[in-house]
Write a structure and sequence with these properties.
The chain has about 325 residues and is of the alpha/beta class. It is built from nine helices and 16 strands. The chain has one domain: TIM Barrel, CATH 3.20.20.70. It has an eight-stranded parallel beta sheet with strand order 3-16-15-10-9-8-7-4.
């Protein structure tokens, strides 16, 4: 990384030496995977979304890589929130923030988890997942504005750590306004845009079949196709949310240029999902190097020099 360039950022009051870290999903479920993130150049460690009890998730095959990205219907396989709470103490040895993703299967589960996490200083912040598309029978809370408000009202009675939310992608402009109106009413620290595009279908023409087993083949789409949607969500929420709410970009980041685009749209940090699954934790150093090279060529010393400064043509 060119020495004159800094990728440092601040999320929820925590300092990150690099604005690049993992999305909650791939390679962040076991302590070994979390250790690998800790030992990598990722700026933070984010856990797999935790439920109240451990879950095996959906039947396999449930994750398939394609030329353009991935389809998954993992179904929140995870070790249960107690495991990720326990891991928080170990995470401290890496000297970077540890964020815990929480995805209770009901409002009551989410409340119980955030109450149990209260007082745990080793958890730098909580990312509340409002957008998993893969649990049969459980709609994505983020598409229901009343339910999102009702959950946040209860959560903020109990939560101790700074809290952000992971949103599904929105596609209709009024929906951005409606969700922003909800979020602006709460002391939210950050918003992660976006989770996978839910319920896509990938087909194996040779076999004339779907490629994943759960939900008749329907699953969340990640990778190249999601980037324009992710950028639009980052940009919209950057313009609609209170200035103190940081935006974290997620979707279609394979290169330093992709990360640059997210930051230009307003992201204060950038998460990597499908590419992390494909390349492993070395992707953080590579993408950081590429981003630094672009910044140096453009004369930007830090990410605040260009964050949110996307130009329009009017
Ligand atoms: C999953 O475990 O199904 C993926 C997590 C998510 O999309 O939030």
């Amino acid at each position: 990384m060119p020495r004159s360039v800094s990728l440092a950022t601040t999320i929820a009051g925590s300092s990150l030496t690099s604005c690049l870290y993992n999305a909650s999903g791939p390679l962040c479920t076991t302590s070994e995977e979390l250790d690998a993130l800790g030992n990598s150049e990722a700026g933070a460690i984010l856990s797999k979304s935790a439920t109240l009890e451990p879950r095996a998730g959906n039947p396999e095959p449930r994750y398939v890589e394609t030329a353009w990205g991935s389809i998954n219907s993992m179904g929140l396989p995870n070790e249960g929130y107690r495991y990720y709470l326990e891991y928080a103490r170990r995470a401290q040895s890496f000297g970077k923030p540890y964020f815990m993703s929480v995805s209770g299967l009901s409002h009551d589960d989410n409340i119980e988890i955030v109450r149990a996490l209260a007082g745990e200083a080793a958890i730098s912040a909580i990312e509340l997942n409002l957008s998993c598309p893969n649990v049969p029978g459980k709609p994505q809370t983020g598409y229901d504005f009343e339910q999102s408000r009702a959950l946040l009202e209860r959560i903020f009675e109990y939560v101790d750590q700074p809290l952000g939310v992971k949103l599904p992608p929105y596609f209709d402009l009024p929906h951005f306004d409606m969700m922003a109106a909800v979020l602006n009413d709460f002391p939210i620290a950050f918003v992660t845009c976006v989770n996978s595009i839910g319920n896509g279908l990938v087909i194996d023409v040779q076999a004339e079949s779907v490629v994943i087993k759960p939900k008749s083949g329907f699953g969340g789409i990640g990778g190249d196709f999601i980037k324009p949607t992710a950028l639009a969500n980052v940009r919209k929420f950057y313009t609609l949310l209170r200035e103190d709410i940081a935006i974290i970009g997620c979707g279609g980041v394979k290169t330093g240029e992709d990360a640059f685009e997210h930051i230009l749209c307003g992201a204060s940090a950038v998460q990597i999902g499908t590419q992390l699954m494909r390349e492993g934790v070395d992707c953080f150093a590579r993408i950081a190097g590429e981003l630094s090279t672009i910044m140096q060529a453009k004369g930007y010393r830090d990410i605040d020099s260009f964050r949110g400064k996307l130009k329009s043509l009017d």
